[in-house]
Amino acid sequence: MKKIPTIFLRDFAAPSNGRYVTREPNPSCDWVFAGEGVPTRKYDGTCVMFDGEQWWARREVKPGKQPPAGFVEVQVDDTTGKTVGWEPIDQSAFAKFHAEAVAYQNGTGISGWPVGTYELVGPKVNGNPERAERHQLWAHSAAEVLDHGGDGRTFDDIRAQVLAAAKFGGVEGFVYHHPDGRMAKIKARDFEPAEVPA
């Protein structure tokens, strides 16, 4: 899975060093602002993938660092220099929790796992912002389509929609899905703190 672009650009010369987005649309995400694509809920856990035979964990490797054994490179982020790719789940820091999720869901009657990406969520994953009672795997292909009371695509529209979804629904952000497979994202924490609901 390639790194999903954020729909607004960041200013890395600002005091926040690019932590927050600007009002300027990301040209690679023009389709979002043209009203194309469907917004879905962005899950807040860690990304894993099943390729039909093996499970993988998403991994970023900082510039100058050695990738882990078995690492499969997907792309290099031109802005940060980080290499994004996959490592075998068994050597990931999330291996134990992933095994618990697979065992739990196999016990609920799931037979076989479709090829694709999943979000690993649960009590021991990134502070459990999704408030999952046990470790689980949520298919990205089945992510909830968001009905957020309007589909305006300006900076102010999107900011209001994302912040409202975060405040009232605990949603981390949106992932826009284009019919041709392209994706773009925005998170509540991408906006200046004064704009994020308490």
UniProtKB/TrEMBL annotation:
<protein>
    <submittedName>
        <fullName>Uncharacterized protein</fullName>
    </submittedName>
</protein>
